[in-house]
Amino acid sequence: MESVKSPTIAEIDLKALGNNLKQVQGLIPQGGEVLAVVKANAYGHGAVQVSRHLEKKDIDIFGVAYLKEAQELREAGISKEVLIFGGITEEEVESAVQYNVTPVLLTKKIAVKLDKEGKRQKKIIPVHIEIETGMGRLGISPDEAQTFVSFIKTLPNIRLEGIMTHFAESESSDKLYTSMQIELFRKTVDAIMPDFKKSKAHSTNSGALIQHPKSFSDLSRIGLMLYGYQPGKINDSRLNLKPVMTLKTRVIFVKEVKRGTSISYGRTFTAPKKMKIATIACGYADGLNRGLSNCGEVLIRGKRAPITGRICMDQTMVDVTHINGAAEGDEAVIIGTQGKETITADDIAAKLGTIPYEVLCGVSKRVDRVFV
Description:
372 residues; alpha/beta; TIM Barrel; Lyase, Ornithine Decarboxylase, Chain A, domain 1; 2 domains; 28% helix
C-alpha cells in the first residue's frame, strides 16, 4: 500500500543547498574546511538527507548538538566525522565510543570515563575542547585551559583533535566584543598548541565568516548560510544564497461569510464585510507559528492571503476575498515563492520578533520532507 503523505510538505531543494555550499566555500581562506552544522534536524531541513548530499560534496565533518543526533546519522550510513557540540553525559560514554563520534569534552570526569571506555573497546577517542571566551554557556575558562589539556595528555586513549570557542554576537555590526573573543581565543590556543600541534582550532560561524574573516579558524562551522540565509542584518553582496526550504500546503475548504461572522478560537477576528475565507491544512503543530495569528500571510494563486483569526493546531483560515477562483485543492505557500510573490523565513521572523533559525527549526516532524 502506498504511504500517505502529510498535507503540508517541506520541499528541500538540494541544488540550492549545493549552491550555498559553493558560495560559502568561496569566502573561506585557502586551506580552511567547512564543518556542516546539521543539528536540530539540519535546521528543520532533514539531517540525514542533507548530510548524505553534503557528504557527496566532500564535506568531511558534521556538527550536531547531542549524541542522539549523531546516532541518527551513523545509523543512516553517514561515515564522516561527527562533532557533538553539547558534549556527552556519563550514561552516553559507551554509545559515543561505539558510534565513533567526536564529543566536545566539558569535564575531567567525562574525560576519565571516555579514556576507560576507549581502553575497553580498544579505541583511541578523538575529542575537541571548548574555551569559554564570552558566550557564557559551555567551555573551560582560559585560565584553566592549560591545566585541563595537560590532564588530557595523561589519558592514553584520548586524542585532542580540536579546540573551539563560540561567539556571542558575530553577526553584530559592533565588532568589538567578537574581536575581544577572537584575541582571547588566539592567546589561549597559542599557549596550548605546542603540545597539540595537529589539533584544529575553530571559532568561525556563519556571522564570523563574513564579519570577521580572520577569526583564527581551521574549520568554519556553517549552518544558517547553508540553508540560504545570512545571519542577523548582514547582507553581503558577494553571496547569492538561495533558500533551500519551501513550506507549502493545500486549501481544504472555502466558504463565504457574512459581515459580523467570527473566525477561529477566541473570536479574535470578525468579518468587517462579506468575505471569502479559505481553510488551509497547516497549523502550529506543523510549524506555522501561532504568533502569526491575524498578522501573517500565505501565498495562494500568486497573491498574499492574510491570516484571519487564531492559527489552530492543524488548520489556519485566510482571507481569499480578493483572489479570483480560489478553491479547494489550491496550493498555499507559507515559506517560499509563488508567482511574483515571496515569503522568506526572514520575513516571518521579523513579524514574530525572532530569528530565521527558530522559524526553520520550528517546522515539525509531522511535515514530510520532499527532496528535489
